[in-house]
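With this grant's support, the team has encoded backbone shapes as discrete tokens. A representative record is reproduced below.
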Amino acid sequence: MTYVIDAARCINCGYCRRVCPTETIHYFDTDDFQHAIWPEACIDCNACAPVCPVDCIAYDAAHVLEGEALEGALAKAREWARARNRDELLKELAPRARFRPASSSAPRA
């Protein structure tokens, strides 16, 4: 599963992008400079939604990441965690992020 960003409500604060362990939330490389989640790398960790100050990130059951794609995304997430463990803003946002395994089939409240 994956998450989607409602571009009409997004204020482009970048918090979601900073906490995404797979770096699948993009901004600078989108045509309209709006934040977007690329579903082909989303591991369904639920880190982005809780840190959004305007609550514009929602669960989308339309995309499922499995097999080698999931393993590759999880490996990228582990590397991201190692590289970002000194980021001060991330340390501030991390307690609000509620991670969950990618195998979960329903969103947490």
